[in-house]
User: What shape does this take?
Amino acid sequence: MTYEAMSLDVQHLLTRLGITKCILLGHSMGGKTAMTLALQRPDLVECLISVDIGPTSTAPVSEFSAYISAMKSVKIPDGLPRSAARQLADHQLRSVVQHPQLRQFLLTNLVEVEGHYVWRVNLDAISQHLVDIMNFPVFHKPYPGPALFLGGSDSPYIRSQDYPEIQRLFPKADVQYIAGAGHIVHQDKFGEFITAVLNFLPPP
Assistant: This one.
């Protein structure tokens, strides 16, 4: 589960869909995957939007590993209605994942399969590749196209110390912050997020 591997997945999808050039938007891990693809294959990317993540290590500010451990420890009895199962999982996550919006985001991955509640994301694979997920691959050649780094003002994921690396790899980058938004910018401030994205995109 490296960003190079996930970038190749997206490249294969583009080929399968017959898309020769795309506008690429990704959040968090998806943002790192989008950046990796833009740096590997700039010919495929018309422009790039990275939501609340930069091309640097997030290990110093991330609580991701604690969230994964908390998700793995959730126990839901079989046969519970979906609403009750989500409420129980929410209660079990609360001590570690303190922000209600973030818990709701994580709970979108709780699904029922043949009467059992499971996480649809591969938590074991994520745990085994946490170092790769927290870091970012080394690149020397910049992406020449336009890029928007859109962060939440209340999130620590795009820091001022990241600006030199953003500028080195994405020399046409614009860094913006949405006031009052945390890491899940598009959930916290949906209207402002859509406006910022549309203002960045080229006219149709």
